[in-house]
Amino acid sequence: MDQIKIGKFIASLRKEQGLTQAVLADRLGITDRAVSKWETGKCLPDASVMPELCDILKISVSELFAGERIDMENLRESNEKLLLELKEGEERSNRKLLHIRISLIVISLVVYMAILIIASFLFKMELLNFAIPLFITAFVLLISLVTIAILIERDAGYFECPECGERYVPTMRAFIVSPHMGTTHHLKCPKCGKKAWHKKVMTK
């Protein structure tokens, strides 16, 4: 999506309606600074205000994302292109999250081992007032980072049932207790109810 093009489109439509940035912002319940950011291409409108914004500007959401008016002949093609762009964006985002998960695991293990080594040294020196808090810190840090990594792995993308093709995010309990190999988990499909090895996929 071309944010600059979308921003210029919003600005031109706003002017067509005879609205200032302040008036448009007031009708949407936001600040005029937010409208200014849209129109300069710095960011896109939040999903929560898009329907009302499109209603005020008298356009469809597809036209908003396209940054131009779309005739009926080109509407289907434009919608398909938009869906593809959204899918690609979701896939990139989920892959980045999974890479972050790997980095978190590596960092947590390195920091955990470093703190343990220091704490062990202090323990041998009989500096228990320093050693014990360090042991506790290492344990809490490891648990915290591993928990975050687990949450990322569960929420980044979806799991696909090989039986019915359903793509879904499992409950935390089902995810944690399920046997797994890498990012493939043995889960029960919420749609067909069959248990199988469900592979991680990036988009729905």
Written description of the protein model:
The chain folds into three domains: 3-70, lambda repressor-like DNA-binding domains (434 Repressor (Amino-terminal Domain)), CATH 1.10.260; 84-155; 158-201, no CATH class. The chain contains eight helices and five strands; from the N terminus they run αααααααββαβββ. 64% of the residues lie in helices and 9% in strands. The mean pLDDT is 87. It is α+β, with helices and mostly antiparallel strands and 204 residues long.
- Percent of residues in beta strands? 5-15%
Distance between the termini: 20 Å
Cα-based radius of gyration, to the nearest Å: 25 Å
Q: Ranges with pLDDT <50 over ≥5 residues?
A: none
Strand line-up of the largest beta sheet: 2-1-5-4-3
The coarse silhouette is flat
The count of domains is: 3
Number of strand segments? 5
In short:
The protein is of the alpha+beta class and 204 residues long. 64% of the residues lie in helices and 9% in strands. It folds into 3 domains: 3-70, lambda repressor-like DNA-binding domains (434 Repressor (Amino-terminal Domain)), CATH 1.10.260; 84-155; 158-201, no CATH class.
